[in-house]
Design a protein that fits this description.
Layout lengths: L1 H14 L3 H19 L10 H24 L3 H15 L8 H13 L10 H11 L5 H12 L1
Helix pairs in contact: 1-2, 2-3, 2-4, 3-4, 5-6, 5-7, 6-7
């Protein structure tokens, strides 16, 4: 589990004088601690699924920040966020590709009771997300919309 290794990884980053990695690792540790100490998660153990969800949320926040900094003309801040984003992605499983999502989409459509019509889009997306938990929801939505039109 990532949470158990965090202290060692932070120490290694400090010894290597890698400030970007150190700050990203500290952010992960802080986010996991915040999750663990929240009221709704009190006394719940941190599982790998939780760790991945927390890091995915952090990745999404970094991507949004990069987009906003770029549109605001602050490339220096966008570059700093991109560097941390690279470190965060090291801890995530490999994301499902467009081909994987399309294959799953075809499998879902092939099942009985699923018609490839727009009104079933929500059910189809939910089924694909259940089959491919490491897939980007936005990408799933785009692919499903494209093939349902």
């Amino acid at each position: 589990m990532i949470n158990n290794q965090m202290g060692k990884l932070i120490m290694e980053a400090m010894k290597a004088h890698d400030n970007v990695r150190k700050e990203a690792l500290r952010a992960i540790k802080a986010a996991l601690l915040l999750w663990q100490t929240s009221k709704e998660n009190a006394n719940k153990p941190i599982t790998e699924e939780v760790e991945i969800k927390v890091i995915q949320k952090m990745v999404k926040q970094r991507q949004e920040s990069i987009e906003q900094f770029t549109t605001a003309g602050r490339q220096d801040l966008a570059d700093a966020e991109a560097a941390q984003l690279k470190v965060l992605k090291e801890f995530l499983p490999v994301e499902a590709t467009s081909e994987d999502i399309l294959k799953c989409f075809n499998d879902v459509i092939g099942q009985d009771g699923f018609e490839p019509v727009k009104k079933n889009m929500g059910i189809i997306i939910k089924t694909i997300k259940g089959s491919l938990p490491n897939a980007d929801g936005k990408l799933i939505s785009e692919i499903v919309k494209e093939y349902l039109q």
